[in-house]
Design a protein that fits this description.
The protein is built from 14 helices and 18 strands. The chain has helices spanning 8-12, 19-30, 58-65, 94-97, 101-125, 143-153, 161-166, 177-182, 186-196, 213-224, 243-256, 272-278, 289-292, 370-389; strands at residues 36-43, 53-54, 70-74, 80-81, 88-93, 129-132, 157-158, 204-206, 230-233, 263-267, 284-287, 299-306, 309-310, 321-326, 332-336, 350-352, 355-359, 362-363. The strands form four sheets. A seven-stranded antiparallel sheet has the order 13-12-1-5-3-17-18. The chain has a six-stranded parallel sheet with strand order 7-6-11-10-9-8. A three-stranded antiparallel sheet has the order 15-14-16, with no helix packed on it. Helix 6 (143-153) links the parallel strand 6 (129-132) and strand 7 (157-158). Helix 3 (58-65) packs antiparallel against helix 5. The longest helix has 25 residues, at 101-125. It is elongated and about 75 Å long. The structure holds ligand PCP.
Amino acid sequence: MPFHIVDGKAIKTGKVTDVYFSRTVEVLQAKGVHKRCVAEVTLKNRKADWDFGILAGVEEMVELLDGVPVDVKVLPEGSVFHPLEPVAVIEGVYTDFAIYETALLGLLCQASGVATEAARCKLAAGDKLLISFGARRMHPAIAPMIERNAFIGGCDGVAVVASAELIHEEPVGTIPHALVLMLDGVTEATLAFHEVIDPSVHRVALVDTFCDEKIESLRAAEALGESLWAVRLDTPGSRRGNLRQIIEEVRWELDLRGFQHVKIFLSGGISAEDIAAHADVADGFGVGTTISSAKVIDFALDIVEIEGQPIAKRGKWAGRKDIIRCASCGTRTVVPASRLPEHCPCGGPVEPLLVDLIEDGRPVGASKPPQAIRKRVLSQLEELRKKRETPRAGR
Ligand code: PCP
């Protein structure tokens, strides 16, 4: 029995489409209606319950639309975007691209949701390590997509081998409870790992299988000494109590015995809020479901112009738009693309943010390696962090 998935060819040939799109094309073709239009990807619900998102999935969108006779402008992959901003603008004969709406939105909505949640976790983690652990909660066919976007959103590493290959990184992992159970203790498991696994791999002991985290941490530290890189606390909910105090106790006991070099890693149902609450006492976080099953960003694709005339359904603003950013005060504004202002009200010069991605079906501009996209995301997050910490005048 094959897996219940489609291959790239089925996606590219428009088979993954809501049937009403293919029926719409059938009707318009029968009626000889081949109007050119402009359609924009923006948030469906403006009252987003967050103040920023990270746009991702753009590289796969290029793959989808390569060869389709459309022009596409986008915010570059890894861009911070805000509610109301059009993240992508598609122009072409509607019947040429209508059937791709389902796949196009699917590629952007899920990837952006994962990248945005990873960014929220990374904002909370600051310079502490953040590793994506969540592939096992999602369909394996999309594990590489999920972890690529967790990485560009800010994760420092990914756990799945196939995901790491996609982004040209080494996979990152510790040890599962199964190893501790199979070898009947954390000391035996940690020593065996140290004996067998390539020395370049960090030695991380999982210290919550049979007994108290501090006892198992000391056992692992006494067994491996300088070779132990970290201990991982995956404390089950039934034993959690005050996780912060458990971490502080483990830290105290390790330091007391000269194991200051051993880092403390947290995992197990970790959220961005948990990271924020423990980033000062923990050295790293393994995050699974929070990132891998992140809420999708509910983008919608809406027609805003037909044959050059502005038109939109109720609730959407008509006319092709662009996003401009002031080079001096940083203010971003959505403006009609036909009326780009020269300057910001503050007097600073403005620059349009949407860039050409596809011209008449041909991809333009080279795609960037995930590491470069991630670096840009991190610098935008730094700007966001500073903005959040700067009290607004008059408040
Ligand atoms: C896995 C791992 C982390 C979990 C997944 C991260 O747990 O140990 O705790 O995913 P989450 O953020 O969704 O919880 P298990 O599979 O229970 O444990 P094991 O390490 O033994 O595989």
